[in-house]
Amino acid sequence: MKQPKPKFIFSAGGTGGHIYPALATADELRKLLPDAEILFVGAENRMEMEKVPHHGYPIIGLPIQGLQRKLTLKNMVVPVKIFRSLFKARKILSQFNPDVVAGFGGYASGPVLKAAARKGIPTLLQEQNSFPGLTNRLLSKSASCICVAYPNMENYFEKNKIFITGNPIRQEIFNQHLSPQNARKFFGLDPDRLTILAIGGSLGARTINETICNLIPEIIEKGYQIIWQTGKQYNYSKCRNMNGEKNTRVQAQEFIFEMPQAYAAADVIISRAGAIAVSEIAAVAKPVIFIPSPNVTDDHQTKNAMVLVNQQAADMVKDADAATQLGPVLFNLIADENRRLEISKNLSKLAMPEAALNIAKKIIELREIKLNGRK
């Protein structure tokens, strides 16, 4: 008897850190099962509604939204939107009839995975951080499988459900073969000069930006150069110019679209410690100083960074200390070639380039269990 056509629902959204791992996994799943139908479910008016169709997958939006941290009237409609989202999620599941539902984080994952579990549909949960949020901890109780990126997650999830797969990242990060010299030329920099890469996320990071701005004179004086993602919320044109002229050793951009080239150009990286940033930096194995954002739930970026720091695979400066400590830590790291080599070596041990493929295989395994009538 011919098996029915494979059908899967992926739920992810809110930030690129949720969307891109889901897209990477969907791509691997499609390679393994070329005839598979994959439907994404996201939140209305969020970035996934644009990014997912651009990548070639259909998406349906739920009217879900999260609670605001400050007191606001918007929070009064949240229970209504959750109820409406659960109702719409059940309708989508009935109409599409997926074999497996996979959740990668974002507001929509909660209603979709909850509704799927109630209908007896196998669910896979992908936890990107070393400390899971409340939603994933609750969803894990009914999940069939939980794919994680860090060890010791049995503190939060049932041990028999956990599989360490790593975080899916863009394959071009692994597959780029550009030399540091050619990568620096790509950004219009000196191909042979030590290069710093400073990134604070797509919107930017005020602490990192203000500190980098103050450090630029010393960076230039010491003979280094910098690629700097400022983010859309910040205008640091004054820091890009020294003595009234644009300094060719400071390449500042609101957003770096060519991240594989930026990573290739870098000798040292300064970064926030979001889950996907950490995984990408492990993949490229470049010496890194993490400045975790203090504005995240449960301080999970500090927990992400500390996993690497404890394995001698990164340095870390607290956000509150960045103004005074980043300069000394940065210049000491640059001066200590042995320490840089140690960090690179230890980072390379943590990279998991097959993460998306391994999660895709788990999704297929859950489908086969379902088809065979086993739980």
Notes on the structure:
The chain is α/β, with parallel strands linked by helices and 375 residues long. The chain has 2 domains: 7-167 and 353-371, Glycogen Phosphorylase B (Rossmann fold, 3-Layer(aba) Sandwich), CATH 3.40.50.2000; 172-350, Rossmann fold (3-Layer(aba) Sandwich), CATH 3.40.50.2000. Helices cover 43% and strands 16% of the residues. The protein is built from 15 helices and 15 strands. The strands form 3 sheets. A 7-stranded parallel β-sheet has the order 3-2-1-4-5-6-7, sandwiched between helices. Helix 7 (180-186) crosses helix 10 (259-265). The longest helix has 19 residues, at 78-96. The protein is elongated, with a radius of gyration of 22 Å. The relative contact order is 0.12. The mean pLDDT is 89.
CATH third-tier fold name of the largest domain = Rossmann fold
Amount of beta strand: 15-25%
CATH superfamily of the largest domain: Glycogen Phosphorylase B
Amino- and carboxy-terminal Cα gap: 21 Å
Work out the number of β strands: 15
Q: What's the main sheet like? A: 7 strands, parallel
Low-confidence stretches: none
H-E string: EHEHEHEHEHEEHHEHEHEEEHEHEHEHHH
User: What is the number of helices?
Assistant: 15
Cα-atom radius of gyration:
22 Å
Overall SS class: alpha/beta
CATH architecture of the largest domain: 3-Layer(aba) Sandwich
Indicate the CATH class of the largest domain: Alpha Beta
Quick recap of the structure?
The protein is an alpha/beta fold and 375 residues long. The chain has 15 helices and 15 strands.
